[in-house]
């Protein structure tokens, strides 16, 4: 006999199993909304015996609405943001990151610009997605990077501007300019072109980058301050400064020639620094030797003149004695180093063989330097 005719099978009617239980539900049951609403109404009726539209009920509802309205004034400012509180559309204060409060809408509202974040704007180049390299690549923008220098040369300049909102100029940033990034980019490009237009190409390509970056940063800041933009320029970085691609090889040749010129000049200067001090030293040595010789000659001349004067004074006192003494001293000085033979040829002297070589009887002395040997006998 089929079970469907049994009214639920052999265990009786209804969807029950053999143990008297029906199918068990799987998982927690969702709350019954009607039951919750009914319980909430019962509690409100207990609090407000007179009903919802009684005096107490209306007052309680109004108080709850006011409480929710007042609580809606709490807001949180993130770490990179500043809170700009507007009262009926007018900027009244700026709050720091964290939990803050303002009067609920429509009295006060709040704007949350990312004023503490440093923004970057690239001029002369742009970043594009490169699927082949799975990253981003740099593409040059010639209409932004090609600039004319003061000496009528063209230079290709790519640079980056770092900027952020001034802490005390958030209101100016929000209400004085409509497109901040576009304004900063336009002003930066104009300032770079002005500074490059006043400069020569050679300092720009070599060692004047820091000066150029500082001048561009100051000019951008002055322009934005005149606009009341509330923007602070943190830094200007020149990424690439090159001649145009069509003439870059010629510029490299010129740079190499100038480098060789500087090298030769440095070598010549090094040689001059080495030779000039040596020549000056020799000149000083010769000058000192001449001065010493002059002092010596003058001193000897003064000594001889003083000696002559003293001898003359003695000569005036005793002319004969002085004359004889001078004669003897002179003869002693002249004959002191000469070979001498004394021959007495008077009547009492003995005869001498006429052909006797008298010069061989004396010991010959070698001639001294600077003095000729005396020949013959005296």
TrEMBL record:
The keyword Nucleotide-binding does not apply. Its main location: membrane. One of its GO terms (cellular component) is membrane. Residues 1-20 have a biased composition (Gly residues). SMART domains: PHB. Residues 72-255 form the Band domain. InterPro entries: Band7/mec-2_domain (IPR050710), Band_7 (IPR001107), Band_7/SPFH_dom_sf (IPR036013), HflK (IPR010201), Membrane_HflK_N (IPR020980). HflC and HflK could encode or regulate a protease. HflC and HflK may interact to form a multimeric complex. This is Protein HflK. The lineage of its organism: Bacteria, Pseudomonadati, Pseudomonadota, Alphaproteobacteria, Hyphomicrobiales.
């Amino acid at each position: 006999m089929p079970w469907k005719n049994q009214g639920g099978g052999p265990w009786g009617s209804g969807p029950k199993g053999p143990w008297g239980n029906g199918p068990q539900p799987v998982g927690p049951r969702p709350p019954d909304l009607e039951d919750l609403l009914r319980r909430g109404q019962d509690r409100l009726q207990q609090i407000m015996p007179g009903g919802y539209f009684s005096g107490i009920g209306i007052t309680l509802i109004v108080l709850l609405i006011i409480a929710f309205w007042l609580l809606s004034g709490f807001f949180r400012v993130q770490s990179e943001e500043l809170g700009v509180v507007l009262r009926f559309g007018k900027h009244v204060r700026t709050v720091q990151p964290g939990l803050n409060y303002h009067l609920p809408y429509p009295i006060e509202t709040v704007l949350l610009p990312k004023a503490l974040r440093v923004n970057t704007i690239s001029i002369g180049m742009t970043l594009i997605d490169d699927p082949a390299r799975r990253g981003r690549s740099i593409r040059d923008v010639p209409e932004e990077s090609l600039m004319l220098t003061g000496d009528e040369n063209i230079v290709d300049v790519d640079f980056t501007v770092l900027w952020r909102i001034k802490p005390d100029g958030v209101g100016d940033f929000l209400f004085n300019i409509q497109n901040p990034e576009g304004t900063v980019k336009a002003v930066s490009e104009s300032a770079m072109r002005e500074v490059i237009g006043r400069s020569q190409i050679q300092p720009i390509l070599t060692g004047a980058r820091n000066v150029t970056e500082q001048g561009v940063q100051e000019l951008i800041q002055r322009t934005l301050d005149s606009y009341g933009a509330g923007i602070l320029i943190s830094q200007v970085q020149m990424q690439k400064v090159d001649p145009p691609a069509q003439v870059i090889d010629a510029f490299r040749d010129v740079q190499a020639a100038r480098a060789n010129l500087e090298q030769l000049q440095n070598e010549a200067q090094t040689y001059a620094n080495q030779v000039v001090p040596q020549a000056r030293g020799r000149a000083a040595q010769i000058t000192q030797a001449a001065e010493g010789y002059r002092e010596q000659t003058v001193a000897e001349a003064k000594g001889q003149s003083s000696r002559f004067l003293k001898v003359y004074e003695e000569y005036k006192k005793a002319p004969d004695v002085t004359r004889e003494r001078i004669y003897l001293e002179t003869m002693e000085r002249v004959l002191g180093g000469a070979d001498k033979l004394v021959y007495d040829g008077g009547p009492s002297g003995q005869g001498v063989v006429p052909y006797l070589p008298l010069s061989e009887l004396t010991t010959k002395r070698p001639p001294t330097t600077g003095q000729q040997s005396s020949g013959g006998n005296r």
